[in-house]
Amino acid sequence: MLKLKLMSGVTGLVAVAVSTSAMAGGLERHGYDVDLLFQNSPFYFDGSVTYVMPNRKIKNARDESVPESNPTNLNSLGYSTTADEYENYADPYLGGKAAIGDAIDCMVDYSEPWGANSNPGRHWAGAKDMTEIEVFSRNYGGTCSYKFDAGPGQFRIIGGGFYQEIGGHKEAVVFAPEILPGMGPRSGRISPDTAASAVWTA
């Protein structure tokens, strides 16, 4: 089995009552926000599960790894030129907030901010490049804010941190069974070690 190390990085963020979310090559499923801190109730809980059905199809796929005249070309072997690309997925979120006195609010939450699952299978013309790719993540966050009066409104200082795990795998056909009948399909799998990072933001 081939193994590929997945490097992790640490990023800092300065925020004063502002939250932003970054796109990451279309992999972002759930951005991070601090809305719970601004709930008027001293205790507040929020949870949701969003179910997404991408319904994306691959059409006119070609095996360009070798010429079409080559006996190992998957189009020549009769592999399909169409496939269902993305799997349906659920995007969960769970969070809670508590007030500590009149000036401090704290929240904790769980989310799966990054993810992708493309699974066209082993019987399409692009199977040498990919039969399945999966990326998953688990994020555990904690954030607090300190507020005080400033003119007609309030000023907040927000800080916190999170622990995040990211992992995944990729599979591809390396030997089509039709070339030597009886040998069965041969596929390769790259499984990066799960990367974890802890980040403090203030």
UniProtKB/TrEMBL annotation:
Alphabetized UniProt keyword annotations: Signal
SUPFAM superfamilies: Porins (SSF56935)
Superkingdom of origin organism: Bacteria
Signal peptide feature range: 1-24
Keyword Signal: yes
Protein name: Uncharacterized protein
